[in-house]
Design goal:
This protein has 322 residues and is of the alpha+beta class. The protein is 43% helix and 29% strand. The protein has eleven helices and eleven strands. The strands form two sheets. Strands 1, 2, 3, 4, 6, 7, 8 and 9 form an eight-stranded antiparallel sheet that branches. A three-stranded antiparallel sheet has the order 5-10-11, with no helix packed on it. A hairpin with a 3-residue loop joins strand 1 and strand 2. Helix 6 packs parallel to helix 8.
Length: 322
């Protein structure tokens, strides 16, 4: 295997890497010293804590007017490109993802808000579903040209929506505000690389994310709205795979008391799998609670289990409190 000489040298002497990262830090400080940059990041903290956008004048200017976002992102590129040119092994302190067609660079995160730059390479992009989340999003289109649609979902029942579309052409000057509980932007065709600065803020107590089929409007999937909830769901699933029957009482408590519906359902399913008596009694209790959002689903599962395993009827009569 061929190893670049500069990389091989780092095995013997780590100082070039430390010098390169020091250069990246200097680039960061130089950009924050530019007019408006530090104010933008300071206001991101307030916005992430719940302040309205109109109480954050720099952020409001960036996402409602043309010019300021372009200026700040151009200065960001200049400072970091100069630092990387002088220090090729340097790594800018941003979390970045790239799948060959689209990239996302997280510039900053504070509280419930995050600021990122997203790009799409030229080409055709297809979407079979839309995902709605309990969040607010602002887009400042900085460069490129693309055909896009704003899709708006209107409830048509518990697990179905009607979807309307507003076609638009992105030319590098648009400022777009989206209520992500019912709206999303879908890019269909990119003619020139599309670059967008995006500001996103989750609700204080977000509802689960929901994906709907574009053609039928029917619910395709549902997932936790926060990383913390996803982490808890993963831990609950792990307890199930480990066969931790001793965890069933705690899972029952989560199924009854947690706020997040998807977390409660995950806990309820694993509780039934680990301890059928504890889990079924918890299921029956949820099914009997008329104002519980899980009551209908729990009732359907209870009926299915009673039909498949008649012994649950005796268990419910003997051990499940009314």
């Amino acid at each position: 295997m061929d190893v670049n000489p500069e990389i091989a040298a780092l095995r013997r002497d780590r100082s070039p890497q430390r010098d390169a990262q020091t250069a990246m830090e200097r680039a960061r400080m130089a950009w924050r010293a530019e007019p408006g940059a530090d104010a933008m990041l300071s206001e991101l903290q307030r916005y992430g804590a719940g302040a309205p956008l109109e109480h954050c004048p720099q952020l409001e200017t960036i996402f409602t007017e043309c010019g300021e976002a372009e200026r700040l992102m151009r200065l960001l590129s200049q400072h970091y490109c100069a630092a990387i040119r002088a220090n090729p092994i340097g790594h800018p302190p941003f979390r970045t993802g790239f799948d060959g067609r689209a990239s996302s660079t997280l510039l900053a995160r504070s509280g419930r808000a995050q600021l990122m730059v997203q790009t799409r390479e030229p080409g055709t992009y297809g979407a079979e579903s839309i995902t709605l989340s309990d969040a607010t999003r602002y887009d400042a289109v900085l460069a490129g040209r693309a055909e896009a649609r704003i899709l708006r979902a209107h409830s048509a029942g518990e697990d179905r929506v009607d979807i309307s579309a507003q076609a638009m052409v992105l030319t590098g000057k648009e400022r777009i505000a989206l209520d992500r509980t019912s709206e999303t932007l879908v890019v269909d065709v990119v003619e020139r690389r599309l670059v967008t600065l995006q500001l996103m803020r989750d609700a204080a107590d977000p509802e689960p994310k929901r994906s709907f089929n574009l053609k039928t409007g029917r619910l395709v999937s549902q997932s936790a709205a926060s990383v913390a909830i996803s982490r808890q769901e993963a831990m609950i699933a792990l307890l199930g795979r480990m066969g931790r029957r001793d965890a069933a009482p705690e899972l029952a408590r989560i199924a009854l008391a947690a706020k997040d519906v998807s977390l409660r359902w995950q806990a309820l399913r694993e509780c039934i799998a680990l301890d059928s008596a504890c889990g079924f009694c918890t299921l029956a209790r949820v099914a009997r609670t008329g104002d519980d959002p899980l009551a209908a689903a729990a009732g359907a599962l209870r009926a299915q289990l009673l039909e498949t395993y008649p012994e649950f009827a005796r268990l419910e009569a003997d051990r499940c409190p009314a």
